[in-house]
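Illustration 12: TetR family transcriptional regulator.
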Amino acid sequence: MVGRPAVPEVIWTRPERAGRGPRPAFSRADIAAAAVRIADAEGIDAVSMRKVAAEIGCGTMSLYNYVPRKEDLLELMVDAISAEYDLSAPPSEDWRAAVVALAHQTRALMHRHPWVPGVISGVYGFSPNVLAFLEHELSLLDALDVPFGEKMELIALVQGVVTTFVANEIATAEHSRSLPWTEEQEKAARTSYLISQISTGRYPRMAAGFAEAPGPADPDVFFERALGRVLSSFGRP
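Figure caption equivalent — predicted structure in token form:
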């Protein structure tokens, strides 16, 4: 395959375009933006080298001169959307609030790009924009007196909470859109069934729990509480 390396290689160490010839007609930014547009509109499974090549107006084989592997394309995409973060917040003594604010940015970003929770990985953790994000988040943790390794654990745990939370929100929204009836009708049917089961007396702990806190928790409150529990395990606020 044209442009494919024979040994392990990081995309960021390669020239913009492999081989000889005229100046590259496309930049990595062009390619990443095209792939992101496709993923946003049609889902990550729709992203292929052929589709991206068509989107930017080049042949599929020519695209391999710029991006040797599909994995490299995913890395370019993750890096591209990571540029959307606002990293202007300065460090402060209230590191918890700063990390929560950044987590809210991540949640919003993932909703703008619903394919991200499915591809986010430590494999793509050291691209230029992701490195800038990590350095910024570490700066927000300057006031937290724990070793570097624990700070990285905190960042990973927060990322995991946000990714899992948003993946569930996206899956729930997709399920609702696929229903042949309204979401309210679906909830009413499921609630009626749940009440009928709880009323049998076979689930006394659940019955007591629902009597204490009826109805689903507000997702925003739940999100904040989940983050707070993770952060509470690291130092003092």
